[in-house]
Amino acid sequence: MTSAHRATNSSILSALQELGTTWRWGSPPTLFTISHTPPKPTVPAVLAGSVGGHTPLGLLEHWIDRCRRHRGIVHTQRDLGVNAVAISFEQDGQHVAYAMDRAGVQYLALGRQHASEWHLTSGTDALAATLLPDLFTERLAELVWRLAGPPPPAPGSRIRDMWPTAGLLDLDEDELHERFAVPPPTEGHTRLVAVASVDGLAAVHGSSTALTSTGDQRVYRLIKRDADLLLLGAATIRAERYGQTILSAPEVARRRANGLPPYPAVAVVTRSLDLDLTGPLFRRGTGRHTPPRPILIVPAAAATDGNTAVAEHAEILVAGEHDVDLTRAVRLLQDRGHRRIVCEGGPSLAGQMAQADLLDEICLTIAPQVLAVAGPRITADSATQPASGEWQLSRSLLDEVGNVFLRYARPS
């Protein structure tokens, strides 16, 4: 699994401590927004107090409902530069100030009336110090996603429109999502994501790492975020030590609010089950929401070869007799509800998917590099005849370091 480091913002803890020192005991639960724009001081601003006898959880749910129904609230708070959302309330004789920032880091300040010392903590599981239910964190995460939005793009990853309309120079996360969104398919939609150099290489020594960039990773993560299932070949799993990207609490909240499970499933096409079961993909996570066990798609001939150990780490799905039948595999996955499939390759799997006419869309990044060495293209297959069908460009974008993002679709 892959997990990005999420830095703690000490100014948010300071803001929570300020909430505690100015708290009037006997007050109802209150929501606050916290904006942090250095060098300006971080100051909590009251969003709303409890009305109608709301419990802390009820207040969160009330505001989530308001945000769902009134987009103006969301736009206003994002324009104010909200970085975190906090809720302040009393519980069992102590004051609780609990916040979460856009990256999913949690902050907690606990204090008692007339006490001079405060217990301050932060991390991805700060609420464990209280007896509040996990649902409390989930509701705050959804409110953070709605009011604060995602973290700002990493340096070098600003993206602009190119075609069919050139215009916006710095797309925010919602605007970028619109550029790559797929309507909920009724019968299934399979999208290939790939990166290639200017001279057509898709990998060096079996890995695409040399071609990736912060802009490419931004688009790649966004596309994966809306997927039901990620489909890969065994060679890619081995070469890249592939593991699920760990999502932040607001990212999980966004998926759940859009009717998706917390994490996309991962399916691996393998003829032999020759996989390292100690690798990142097979490591089980901890916490309330963790990626599901991977699915291994195998032919019947491989499924009978001593797979007891494999079955402890993954689900086995049989498609085909002596080789994997990709058409059947995709149909079986869609029958399970995995309508939006993102194929991450590698080249061999991508080539077979193209030859079998199983791709509805291709999202291709052209990296501004000329490698001038031997290596694979984004597709590779032993077929002697070209794949059939035409493709139409539906969207192109450009980032600030020269990566070009192309979205191709089948003609309607």
Automatic annotation (TrEMBL):
Is Oxidoreductase a UniProt keyword of this protein? yes
Q: Which superkingdom does the taxonomy of this entry point to?
A: Bacteria
Q: Which InterPro entries match?
A: DHFR-like_dom_sf (IPR024072), RibDG_C (IPR002734), Riboflavin_Biosynth_HTPR (IPR050765)
Residue ranges of the Bacterial bifunctional deaminase-reductase C-terminal domain?
193-384
GO terms, biological process: riboflavin biosynthetic process
Q: In which pathway does it act?
A: Cofactor biosynthesis; riboflavin biosynthesis
Gene3D superfamilies given for it?
Answer: Dihydrofolate Reductase, subunit A
An example Gene Ontology molecular-function term: 5-amino-6-(5-phosphoribosylamino)uracil reductase activity
Write the record's keywords in alphabetical order, separated by commas: NADP, Oxidoreductase
PANTHER family reported for this sequence: 2,5-DIAMINO-6-RIBOSYLAMINO-4(3H)-PYRIMIDINONE 5'-PHOSPHATE REDUCTASE, DIHYDROFOLATE REDUCTASE FAMILY PROTEIN (AFU_ORTHOLOGUE AFUA_8G06820)
Q: What is this protein called?
A: Bifunctional deaminase-reductase domain protein
Q: Which organism is it from?
A: Salinispora arenicola (strain CNS-205)
